[in-house]
Structure formats: C-alpha cells, structure tokens
C-alpha cells in the first residue's frame, strides 16, 4: 500500500486514472490499536454511552468502531449527591462520582447484551488501590467478549486514589504494570489533562507496558451561582467536557503522539467528522466521541460517514494513510 | 416502547402570554408512541452554545402526528427556542421516560402550577378520550397571573372538566397558592396527579400523604441525555438515588425522599 501511494504521488495523472477506473470503491477505515483491530476509528467514550443498550434505539451500534462502557469498579458505587451536572459555555461540568454497578454485576448483567454486538467492547476500569485495579482486570480477563481494557487513572471526582494515580507518573506506571500482569487483554491507559506535562505521564505508562494511551479525560472545573452564592455542583468541582476543551485536547494529543511510539486515541469535544480529522491529523490512530453522545446521539455514526466522505473527496483509499500527516513549518 | 431522534418542523407557534409560548411540531413517530407524562429532549439550535438538549414534557399529542410543547422563557435555551419560527426544524429525541399511570383509580385530581400544567393537559385529554374522565374529577391550576392561566384553563374546560384557578396576584380565580384548594377536593378523589414548582408539589404530596390519597408527581431536573446514560438527573428516592429520565419523570410520590428531592 505504501509503495503504491508513493507511485501515485510521483505520477499524479495515474492517480486520476485510478480514481476514475474504480469510482465506487469504499475507503478502508480500519485501524489497529496494538492488537485491537477496529473497523473504523470512531469509538464512544466511557461515561457518555452507558452500557451501550441505552442507545440501541437511536444508534446502529454495529456501525461504531468500538464501544467503551461506563467505568467499572470492584464494588458498586452509588455516585455523588445531586446536582451532578451543569452546562457551561460550549461544554458541561459533571461530578457523577463514578456511579456504576460493579464488576460482578457488569459481567452477569451487562455483558450478555454487549457480547451480541459485532463492535469491540472496551471496558473502562477504576479502582481505589493498585490491588483493586488488578482484581477487576483479573475478573474481566476471564469474561468472554471483552476486546480490551481502558485503565481510568484520571477521574477527578474521587478523593481517594483516582487523582494521585493520574497525576504522579510512578503511580500511573505502578497501576499499569499491575494490570498488565493480571490480563492478556490489550491495555489502553486514559490520561488526565490535569497535569503539568502529559508527555511525562504518557511515557511512564508506555514504559510500564501499556498498549495505547487515550486522552484527554475531563479538565477539572467549577461553576458558581452568584444569586445563591453556592457552587452549581453538589461536589463543588467537576470535570469539564465538550467542545470547550477540544483545543486543549488536540494540543495534548499532538504532543503525546510525537513523544511516544504507542497508538494514541484522541478524546475531547469531538462532535463532527472535521473534529475527528483534526485529531487523526495530529497523530491519533482513533478517536472517542464523548459528550456529543448526549446532545446528538447520532454523532458517532455521522462521524463514520463523514470520514468516508472526506477520504473519497481527498482521493485517499485508507484512513491509516492520513494519521499524523499534519503539516507544520515549511512542509 | 421506543424512542426516536427526529428532525421536526414547527407547524404552529402561539404566544400565550408575553413570555409563554406553545410550539406545535410535526413529529409523527414520537406522537404515535407518546404517553401523558413522557418528555422529549429538544435541541434548541444546531450550534454548540447552548450545548445540551432541553427536556420538555409533551403538552399534547395529536392523531395527525403533531405534538405540542409549552414553555416559559427562563434562560438562554428557552429564549432561543422562543425565537424559532413556523417552518424551522428542531431536532427532537423522544418520547422518553415513564408517564402517568392512569389505569384504574377514579375520580382524580390534576393539580398543576405554571409550566407544570403542560403534561396535565395531555393527561386530561387522554383521560377524556379513553372514557376515563368522570364528572367528579377536579382540575386545579395555578400561575402568577391571569395571562399565563386563561388560555390553558379554557382548554381543560373545553373537555368538560370543572376547573378551579388560583393566581399569585388574584387576577383570576382565588388569590394565593393553588394547593390551598386541594383540601376541599382530597376527600372526594382517589388519585392526584401533580406537576409544578417544587414548593407546590411538596405541599401537594404532604396533603396527599396525610389524607392517604395516592399521588403521582412529575419531576423536572437538569439532564444531559434523557436516556439514562449521563446519570446527571438523579434525585433521592426512598431506596437510594433514582434517575428522573428513566425511572421518572413521573414517580409515585411515596417512592421519593421528598425532603431531599
């Protein structure tokens, strides 16, 4: 494929001929995240897509590249008191507090449905200790139908554990190593943007055995009602997501993609195919659609369609050929 | 039960009061499935600010495939919605949530305040069209002023119901709080349906519990998705947190921890 691309580049006339000869050929959207093969690079982000079934009437789940389910802990978590969400300019703050059914009920109650889908299911895992992460990973390793794990070291809402794992490179490495020893599943580590240098975190988990990194999780934020003089979230602070954070996410993805050899999955405010393309050009091998699932359930499917159209218009046969092709300086 | 995401044309726009609007939309799939008490999530503009959809109770659902939404301009989202015109398209997801259970117990009392009246008209129409309405049913409606109340009250009256009103300024009906009228009604009804401001519903629920009359409440909260994924709309139930979008928006009042709702 590479050779052919080079040939076509040197001989633009031939490229036109080739395109005219096979005008209806569908571009190849497949991407590879380590050993995890995806039919297209558009996944749904953890915490924004429930356990997928919530969307079954609104989205053709089998058209997605991957589904990352709501973060799972060892034991069920009730989450934070309400109010848990507040809208902000082009974004939203949430302090859900990792409400989830726990790993055992996830396997017995949610996996039977997820197994029926043709789309790879990635399980986001979170814990209060290294041992908890390991134990969840072991339990999921034995459950059929899971394509990969995404280690959530970055949720800002839990006082114990979460923040430290996501902001201290040694801690992030420790968790990654422990989970690596507990499962043979591909491991994605989801990075927090609430650090001084995200590249340091990415390198730490790369060295510890991660197969990929996904970024960014939410940025910690806050909103106050001046009339009541109270914070709008019961938890006072929460995670900012949505289009408001896209430029920050894109910058971080670009920096990390240059610094590590692992596949990078871009997350942050992606709503349209154009948004997804920005991340792919910056070096992401895949993307996750998050908050957009809330305000436009059709977003992820539309992005898949939009990527196909873009590749056709650009005369590209394979999506992988555009990954990291950002032009800078005098390119 | 199934929900749909649909682009719906605005086919009617009425200004019932200076800041109260009723939009009627062509939404055949949603109208065909809608039950009183269910809601839709509306994207007020195609842009990114405001970002989230707004939940609105279904105010009316007609056999011609149209649904109506009633709203008061309170913030950025409703202000933008008020500026939309006949012929514009809105992106809707619905019908969502659990509606009112109106199977057996009669007679009933519907008590609504302000925009909380919206789902009660759909309920009243459904009770009427399915032959469940009785002469002993009561409709109690409250609002700030006559302007907000008159057009809606007339529609309940047109169905044959006896309607009692209260306004904050006394411009129509009794001057005061609509739950004050409930005391006279409670001994004669088996079931109360209520929707409105928090203080009003709290008062209604307390009276119903004292009189041992069943009460269903329709709650309104902020929510991002409306389909059970964001977990942002939880309130305190008697047995832990419940999601307004999925387990509600209509709840048996006894299942909620009312002091914490």
Characterise the protein shown here.
The complex is a heterodimer of chains A (331) and B (261). Helix content of chain A is 35%, strand content 19%. Chain A contains eleven helices and 16 strands. The radius of gyration of chain A is 20 Å and the shape is globular. Mean pLDDT of chain A is 91; it is low at 1-19. With 261 residues, chain B is α/β, with parallel strands linked by helices. Chain B has three domains: 4-96, Elongation Factor Tu (Ef-tu), domain 3 (Beta Barrel); 100-218, Nucleotide-binding domain of ferredoxin-NADP reductase (FNR) module (Rossmann fold), CATH 3.40.50.80; 219-261, Dihydroorotate dehydrogenase B (pyrk subunit), domain 3, CATH 2.10.240. Chain B contains six helices and 16 strands. In chain B, strands 4-3-7-1-2-6-5 form a seven-stranded antiparallel beta sheet. A seven-stranded mixed beta sheet of chain B has the order 11-10-9-8-12-13-16, with helices on both faces. In chain B, 52% of the residues are buried. The mean pLDDT of chain B is 93. Chain A binds chain B through residues 48-50, 54-55, 57-58, 78-79, 81-87, 89-92, 94, 96, 99, 242-243, 271, 291, 293-298, and chain B through 2-5, 43, 48-53, 91, 93, 221-225, 227-236, 240-241. Chain A: FMN binds at residues 46, 70-71, 124, 152, 190, 216, 242, 268-269, 290-291. Chain A: Its main location: cytoplasm. Chain A: It comes from Candidatus Electrothrix aarhusensis. Chain A: It is found in: Cytoplasm.
């Amino acid at each position: 494929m590479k050779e052919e691309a080079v040939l076509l580049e040197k001989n633009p006339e031939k490229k036109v001929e080739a395109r005219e000869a096979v005008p209806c050929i569908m571009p190849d959207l497949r991407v590879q995240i380590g050993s995890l093969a995806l039919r297209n690079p558009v996944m749904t982000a953890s915490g924004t897509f429930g356990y997928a079934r919530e969307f079954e009437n609104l989205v053709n789940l089998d058209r997605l590249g991957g589904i990352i389910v709501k973060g799972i802990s060892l034991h069920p978590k009730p989450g934070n008191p309400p109010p848990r969400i507040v809208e902000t300019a082009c974004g939203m703050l949430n302090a859900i507090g990792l409400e989830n059914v726990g790993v055992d009920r996830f396997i017995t109650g949610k996996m039977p449905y997820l197994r029926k889908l043709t789309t790879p299911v990635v399980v986001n895992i979170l814990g209060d200790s290294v041992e908890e992460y390991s134990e969840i990973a072991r339990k999921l390793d034995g459950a059929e139908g899971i394509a990969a794990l995404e280690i959530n070291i970055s949720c800002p809402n839990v006082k114990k554990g979460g923040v430290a794992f996501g902001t201290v490179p040694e801690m992030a490495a420790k968790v990654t190593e422990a989970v690596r020893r507990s499962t043979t599943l591909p491991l994605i580590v989801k990075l927090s943007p609430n650090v001084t240098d995200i590249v340091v975190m990415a390198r730490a988990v790369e060295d510890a055995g991660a197969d990929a990194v996904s970024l960014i999780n939410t940025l910690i934020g806050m909103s106050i009602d001046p009339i009541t003089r109270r914070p709008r979230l019961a938890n006072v602070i929460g995670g900012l997501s949505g289009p408001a954070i896209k430029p920050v996410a894109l910058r971080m993805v670009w920096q990390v993609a240059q610094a590590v050899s692992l596949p990078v999955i871009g997350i942050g405010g992606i709503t349209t195919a154009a948004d997804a393309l920005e991340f792919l050009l910056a070096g992401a091998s895949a993307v996750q659609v998050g908050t957009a699932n809330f305000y436009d359930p059709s977003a992820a499917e539309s992005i898949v369609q939009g990527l196909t159209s873009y590749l056709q218009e650009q005369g590209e046969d394979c999506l992988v050929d555009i990954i990291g092709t950002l032009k800078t300086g005098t390119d | 039960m199934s929900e749909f995401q649909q682009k719906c044309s605005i086919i009617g726009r009425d200004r019932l009061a200076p800041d109260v609007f009723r939009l009627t939309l062509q939404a055949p799939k949603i109208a065909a499935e809608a039950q009183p008490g269910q809601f839709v999530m509306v994207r007020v503009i195609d842009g990114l600010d405001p970002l989230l959809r707004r939940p609105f109770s279904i105010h009316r659902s007609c056999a011609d495939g149209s649904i109506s939404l009633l709203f008061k301009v309170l913030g950025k989202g409703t202000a933008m919605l008020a500026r939309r015109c006949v012929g514009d398209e809105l992106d809707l997801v619905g019908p969502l949530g659990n509606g009112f259970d109106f199977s057996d117990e009669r007679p009933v009392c519907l008590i609504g305040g302000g925009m909380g009246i919206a789902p009660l008209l759909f309920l009243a129409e459904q009770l009427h069209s399915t032959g469940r309405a009785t002469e002993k049913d009561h409709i109690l409606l409250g609002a700030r002023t006559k302007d907000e109340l008159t057009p809606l009250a007339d529609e309940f009256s047109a169905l044959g119901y006896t309607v009692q009103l209260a306004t904050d300024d006394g411009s129509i009906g009794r001057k005061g709080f609509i739950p004050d009228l409930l005391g006279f009604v409670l001994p004669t009804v088996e079931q109360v349906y209520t929707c409105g401001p928090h203080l009003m519903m709290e008062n209604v629920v307390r009276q119903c519990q004292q009189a041992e009359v069943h009460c269903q409440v329709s709650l309104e909260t902020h929510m991002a998705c409306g389909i059970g994924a964001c977990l942002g709309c939880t309130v305190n139930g008697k047995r832990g947190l419940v999601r307004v979008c999925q387990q509600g928006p209509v709840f048996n009042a006894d299942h909620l921890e009312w002091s914490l709702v």
